[in-house]
Batch of 2 targets.
Target 1
Amino acid sequence: MTLQWTAVAVFLYFEIAVILILCLPFISARRWQTVFKLKIWEFIGRFWNKVFLTMIIILIVLFLDAVREVRKYSAKELGTDAKLQPNMFDHLHMKLFRAQRNLYISGFAVFLWLVMKRVITLINQLALASATTAALQVQADKANQVAEKYLEDNELLKKTLMEGKGDKATAEGMELLKQEVDQLKKELKTSGEALKTSHSEADVMKKQMEGLAREYDRLLKEHQELQNLHDSGSKKDD
């Protein structure tokens, strides 16, 4: 194996290892997000898009070169020349095997590179959604506590109005009631804004998930094409 294909193979093994680590069930998405927020990743993030596109271009070029080699050493094209020398067929068969091996290595390297980037994106989005859900849960708990407090205050207010005598007690009760109503209006406004924000975030997440589903279907289609190419190469060898 030449130096370039050895590098591609090592890169493929690296991708497999990273994806397996990212898929470990006992590491939560929020913990991964904490890891991704380290300073070293912030520095790498500045060049991430350029590195990603560069690797895609390199792997695609190597993949196309492997396809060319497979077609070059296919039995259909060189079957006539192989009859001229007894050992030529074995030599061509060996080169065809190497070309097919390089094709699979480069093809799966491209596929897993796209999958790894998508997995990292999904982990970040899942962590963001978890944080948003936790914040909304805290707001809901606070709203329940406030509602219980207001219920107790209203009961106390009713008791005060029923036990009070004269216009002074009634005026004090009405003033307390007015203050409670104003406070309830403020809390209702805050809850409405929080609900509106949560709906907007849910719509954004829904659109992102639809895009991810389309991207995943496309990757599966590419994987199936590579598998079909592998099956056709195996049939030629038989």
Note: Helices lie at 3-22, 29-36, 39-45, 48-72, 75-82, 88-163, 166-237.
Target 2
Amino acid sequence: MRAGVIAVQGDVSEHADAVRRAAASHGIDAEVVEIREAGLVPDCDVILLPGGESTTISRLLREEGIDEELVRHVREGEPVLATCAGLIVASRDAKDDRVDTLDLLDVTVDRNAFGRQADSFEAGLDVDGLTEPFPAVFIRAPVIDEVGGDVDVLAEWDGDPVAVKQGPVVGTSFHPELTDDARIHDLTFFPAKAVAPDADVEVAE
């Protein structure tokens, strides 16, 4: 399996490690490609769109021509995992004209709704498709405040959706890559079976 991590900004190596662990749990070897320019997405089976700064990510995707390739990837039914700022970019509306959203998920988001870096926290989330709570890490996280009819809500926190799925795309407000638990990556790319957690949550500094 070839996994492409959008590497214009964000937790690239953490996502690469997580998708390798998820693939290995199914006896699959995952080759990870860091994507910083157009031409690589079409050769990938799965795509990861990490966090970072959503205005910068969306601008670089547009400038490099990666945005159109991502849209085509999803239209062809290939999976994408978009986390935190990646979720904002993947949304229909970020409520911010500086963000050129990709409209991969029919949701609107409120950027940084969970507060500043100092307001980061961890929470055990009940996620549809997982048998045990997932140790979610929220860092300057967006809130999903409107969900379209074709979108499935996978998890909520304080009544707000924080994980959603539409077709082959999964979006999370939190950072699943900042744990040793690869079940969100597994749920996205191998939805028939989610692996068990293998360690406690660890927050990257």
Note: The longest helix spans residues 12-24.
